[in-house]
Amino acid sequence: MRTAVVGGGAAGFFLALNLKEMVPDMEVTIFERSHRVLTKVEVSGGGRCNCTNTFQDVTDLSQVYPRGHRLLKRLFNTFDYRDAYAWFECHGVPLVVQDDQCVFPQAQDSHAIINCFLSLARRHQVEIRTGCKVQSLADVSGYDYVVVTTGGSPKGEGLRWLTALGHETETPVPSLFTFAIQDKQLQALMGVVTEVEAMIPGTRLRAEGPLLITHWGLSGPAILKLSSHAARYLAERDYRAPLAVRWLQMAEQDIVALLREQSVQQPKKQLTTYNPFRLQQRLWIYLTEKALGERAQVRWAELNKKDVNRLVNVLQNDNYQIAGRAAFKDEFVTCGGVSLKAVNANTLESRHVPHLYFAGEVLDIDGITGGFNFQAAWTTAYTVARSIALMVNG
Length: 394
Fold this sequence. Notes:
By secondary structure, this protein is α+β, with helices and mostly antiparallel strands. Helices cover 35% and strands 21% of the residues. It has helices at 10-22, 39-47, 69-75, 81-90, 111-123, 160-164, 184-187, 221-229, 231-236, 252-265, 281-292, 305-316, 372-393, and strands spanning 2-6, 27-32, 52-53, 95-97, 102-105, 127-130, 145-148, 169-174, 177-181, 193-199, 206-213, 217-219, 240-246, 318-327, 334-338, 356-358. α1 (10-22) links the parallel β1 (2-6) and β2. It is elongated. The mean pLDDT is 95.
């Protein structure tokens, strides 16, 4: 029996290795279009590879998988993040958990995972063919099973041959990116990091977490999460949309009370020089000047009701205009791909072509940053390996 794995990425290798462990006599060949394998794994997580997450803070998979959460909930019954953690440790890659629940190799180096995959591939005699672009089933004729793990296809070109076979597809668009904000005063705060809630007014699209101000606009986990959930919404608007930032996670009445309290306790201090909130001083000065203009230089005792209202509004509902997107350098994630309607939800086998399977980002499944996309790759790859093994072994 022979299996062709079309795509030499994380899902492709994980699938091939698990299939060989389940069916040792299976001949498995990985076809990779580039001349190097696992390049995305190499650069992920800043070169450390955030390979999964503990999911400790996840109460519903839709929080971390804007697309595909229902299918993954089903598939997690077979192979989830706990299984992935155990798999890597069992295969010689010790892992560590960060405070934010992201999981990395203990070596803090993506090559720990790459070397593991390549070593196991040699041990299991998995054939790896680089520089091989598969554009039709004819290119892999002679194989009993074909699994497509080609990853995201930003321009949709890689999906054409699959569409020609009758598979429904969802238009691919980027799903992890930062926001360009044309505000020089904001950009001057480059390097400031703070906890916020970011949202797109008029929608339910919102995300919480650290926000990083950059020389082009806004980045950080809060923005990346929001970009993932809002991927299609923003693509349809050419990445031009309003953005609101809630700088303080406090009730409005509490902010008002604290501002008035400072007027009594710090009457002679200048507004911009005394910061009653846990905001970096540069950010506090920027926000007070944005809210009050020249009156940002007044003393706390001179703060009037109108000043308080303006300050509260900026601290709770600061408005910007997204003026484009920029790629997040550690991630190359695409939403869209082969529609989940086109596959069997239990096996990920094509509903149109027998013995053709899909795993990884080529499916319309994607997650927010934090190891969730790799976990989707491990889960879908394992599901396909198990499905083929059950067919072969009976």
